[in-house]
Amino acid sequence: MRIMFDEVRGNKFKSVLLMSFFIIIIGMLGAVLGMYYGSLSFGVVIAVLFSIVYALVGMYSGDKMILSMSGAREVTKKEFPHLFHTVEGLAIAAGVPPPKAYVIDDTALNAFATGRDPSHASITVTTGLLKKLNRQELEGVIGHEMSHIKNFDIRFMMLTAILIGIAVLLSDFLLRSLLWGGGGRNRESKSSGAMVLIVFALVLAILTPIIGELIKLAISRRREFLADASGALLTRYPPGLASALKKISQDPDPLVDKANKATAHLFISTPFRKTKGAMTRLFATHPPIDERIKRLEEM
What we know:
alpha+beta
């Protein structure tokens, strides 16, 4: 128990460092963009204002967009009573308001949680998951997703996705400005300072989306381990989630039809078909499922 809470503190600290680094990247993009157009302060102010507006819109409507993109539909207690009772019971155990329940009509075995805080959260499962898992396995999966809600992972991952979106948009605008734009700076200038700025801006604009994606995936993988451990403590039965993950890993068709790269990190397991290779592991949204099962079995 103590080791798990130490890991929670360590992961929170590392996550704050990663987010701080990412905010600095956004500031650098704004500064370079401002310098290119002749005013560093103007670029930083525009980047900050744009980030604030984009973040507010994303935080208050991001979950609705995610549910819509995923093809999720809200369900009633009459339609899926077992799902509702499981969600309500584990919400009481976790000490959070019961989240709304959604389902995706898909044969794949998967689930995810989203929202901006425990009072505005939802848990979505596929119909395939409801059909294939027994009571204890479903409790394990819902416990995992409830832990994401209780630990505010849902807010953190949404904020991460928003910051990545801001950085990608800014870097794309900077790249287009450098390649095709005009700007206030005299582009015919051959001074070493101007050339250094252009080279630095190009490198920053190209690398930012890649760095951002790697940061998002690193945070996602780390928090999956935490949610597994927290969910197992919530249900008091680690074998339930371990057994559910085994069934999920053995799913012959794991592809969730309406999943995409923007939402993949939210699911309990990757919603795409399995591929192998070093690059696949580097850009994986989840840690190896065998390692997750092994940790649960050792609890």
